[in-house]
Amino acid sequence: MAEAEIRRQIDRIIEGLAAKDLEGLRRVYAPDVVSFDVEPPLQHVGVQAKLRNWERAFAFFESLRYEVRDLTLTVAGDIAFGHAFARLGGTPKHGPATSGMWVRVTYCFRKIDDAWLIAHDHVSVPLDMPGGQGVVDLEP
Q: Is 3.40.50.2300 the CATH classification of the domain at 2-126?
């Protein structure tokens, strides 16, 4: 049952991004969420900081979509974690549509007041060590 509830929260992220629904997204994150996202700075602390990331995406894209693939979850008591591949794509306001790039994502959930909320997420791309650049053309 917990795994199904957590998967539903991931679905809410997908739905919230497609609808550009910040309030819907707010209900997925813990108030004190710590996010290691692909955009600077190194960490975003609190739900407002996380929502500002999504606001920037909403400002950039006319329409967008978020895809999550190969989500694996582990649940123990009131804590759960999952890992997956994800990509954010869509049609920018000033440019052609893009399918986006695949990233690695880790979700850490806490059950707070009977709701599974994201307490931490970490998004990354592999690094080409000699070149010092992120590798953004890989596919799962």
A: no
Q: Are 116 and 6 in contact (CB under 8 A)?
A: yes
pTM: 0.94
CA distance 117 to 108: 8
Kindly give the pairing relationship between strand 29-36 and strand 127-128.
unpaired
The residue type at 69: R
How does pLDDT run across 12-50, given as a tens digit for each residue?
Answer: 999 999 999 999 999 999 999 999 999 899 999 999 999
DSSP H or E stretch at residue 122: strand 115-124
Structural domain boundaries in the chain: 2-126
In the chain, % of residues over pLDDT 90: 96
